[in-house]
Please model this.
Amino acid sequence: MLIRQENEAEFPAIYDLVKTAFQTAKVSDGDEQNFVDRLRASGNYIPELALVAEDEGKLIGHLMLTRTFIETAYGQHALLLLAPVSVVFERRSQGVGAQLIKEAFHLAKAKGHKAVIVVGDPAYYNRFDFRPSVDFGIANTDQIPNENVMACELTPDALRNVKGTISFHG
Model:
C-alpha cells in the first residue's frame, strides 16, 4: 500500500470513494463527499496534508487535515481539523485508516503544526491519543456531544493554555 498526496485529476474518484465509504459508516450525515469539496475550496486547504491510500493502482482510503481555528479571548488559535477519514468497505479493519492518520500526523508535525481536532467515534480515535476537547477547555458551538469532539496534541502541551470555542459549520 502506498500513501501519498492526492492530486486534482483524482478528485472525482475521491468524491466517489468518500460517498461510498460513508454510505456504510456508523455515523454519517450523507454530505461528507461535498464537505471534502468545500474544504478544498476554502482558504484552509493544505494540499500536502490531503492524502490517499492506494493499493495496486486503486484508491482505498482518503483523509484531509485542514486549518481550523479556536476562538479564544485573545483571538484565533490555529490547529488542524481531521476530516473526513474514508476507507473503502472491503478494506476496513485492516489498518488503512490508521496508517493514513499516522502518516498525516507525521507530515503535519514536520510542517510545524501542533494540534489536531476531530469529530468522530471515541472508540476509534482514542488510539491516536485524542481525548475530549473539553478536557483542554475547548467547547464546540454546534451542539455536538462533547465525547465526539476530540483533540490531540502533536507536540506536548500545545493546547495547555488554549481555552475557547470551535465551530465546524463556519
Observations:
- The domain at 2-166 is CATH 3.40.630.30 (Aminopeptidase).
- The chain has a mean pLDDT of 93.
- The helical segments are 11-23, 32-41, 96-110, 122-125.
